[in-house]
Known about the structure:
The chain has one helix spanning 8-19, and strands at 25-31, 39-44, 49-55, 68-75, 80-87, 92-98, 105-109, 119-124, 127-130, 136-137. The protein is mainly β. The protein folds into two domains: 8-55, no CATH class; 68-137, no CATH class. The strands form three sheets. It has a four-stranded antiparallel beta sheet, with no helix packed on it. The chain has a three-stranded mixed beta sheet with strand order 1-3-2, with helices on one face. Strands 4-5-6 form a three-stranded antiparallel beta sheet, with no helix packed on it.
Amino acid sequence: MLILTPPPAQACYDAVAELGFGSSKVKNNTGSTPQLPAGCVFSKAADGTATAMFNTAKSATACKATAVKTSFAASAATGVSLNITLDSASKGATITIKGPSTVWFGTGISAKIMADQPYTLVVNATGIYMDPLPLQPLSVNL
């Protein structure tokens, strides 16, 4: 059996494209920049565009520690996206859920399938509701 693996740069670009990170557009770039960590480097601009760079430089630079951590997931099938940002400096969390305006939608957190009984957020025309059942209304900024 012959198993073909993509070259490292293509594997970097494929991983960033699959994860998306909530970017409106991702530009792929291969270069040698010693000031950046070696390997796959992702950066996102304020306008939502991003760059996936495969850095070929021999670099001792490590990834920077940051107080803000962001996670993003989206479903093309449902049109629902979830972005969670944690800020350890302010001890705050921001959860952004986007979906179709004509139907209710929801998302589960901390599970792979609904049978895992995730923490659930459901959005409809009257507000945002959370687990446990029965769903409780949240006081949030819409």
